[in-house]
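Milestone 3.1: sequence recovery, worked example.
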């Protein structure tokens, strides 16, 4: 790690690459979260949400489900980006801790 700062333009390259790396890591985790939710919903409601093989567009149901999951996730995330978002995050962290301890101790 001692040689990296000695390269020409190392700070500029690092300042350009790091945000891109963070964005791609976040995008990757979002794909995993959405696919997990979609698969769980399809397993819970197979008749309604699984694509029919005899239909003209078997991909349409999954696409609609993915768009719906993304839209609901976006709408649920909006309050966390507003003024009181940090208070909501603190509230949820406190509630998660409370419920975890309550279940663990009982």
């Amino acid at each position: 790690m001692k040689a990296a700062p000695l390269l020409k333009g190392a700070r500029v390259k690092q300042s350009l690459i790091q945000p891109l790396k963070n964005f791609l890591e976040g995008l990757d985790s979002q794909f995993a979260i959405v696919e997990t939710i979609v698969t769980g919903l399809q397993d819970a409601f197979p008749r309604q949400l699984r694509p029919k093989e005899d239909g003209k567009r078997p991909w349409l149901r999954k696409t609609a489900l993915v768009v719906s999951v993304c839209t609901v996730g976006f709408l649920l995330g909006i309050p966390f980006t507003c003024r009181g978002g940090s208070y909501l995050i603190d509230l949820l962290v406190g509630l998660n801790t409370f419920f975890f301890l309550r279940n663990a101790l009982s």
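The first helix runs from residue 10 to 44. The chain has one domain: 4-105.
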